[in-house]
Amino acid sequence: MPKRMDEGLGGAMNIASSTLDSLGEVQQANVELTMNARRELHLYSPDLEPHLYDYPPFLSALRALAVSGGRARVHILVRDSTPAVSRGHRLIELARQLTSFIEIRRLAEDTRERLDAFLVVDRRAVVHRLYWMSYQGMASPDDPVLARALVKEFEALWETASSDPELRRLHL
User: Residue limits of the DUF7931 domain (predicted)?
Assistant: First the structure.
């Protein structure tokens, strides 16, 4: 269970910002925030980390968002999708099935030095890890300042990103 940042302050239920230290904590935060998404989700993961994003509860929450009412949008940026494609990552398959709602792009070559990873929901809720190969980070269902800053960075990267040829389905 993530450690709540408000522990020791009376544990008010409306404040659920958490520090994250383990795979299970990051998985739980991703699932909970995605389950509460209504309009949009921005995800940056260098290689679609299968232990986080090829995780059935996360995929179920993402599918539910995508089919929730026609307006939801999921934008995903990756540095390299080759390992995910070769492993048969289920998030890629979901994106192929729901092309009107989920789009994955590859970062431009000159923007691939990012070390962090993040998920932002509805420009308000955030899971952010400063170093993508670590599970240490933070999660908050209500941090619009950080969420908007990350989305602004994401959108700038999105504009220079391209469709990933690795993600095209081959029909033989």
Answer: 25-170
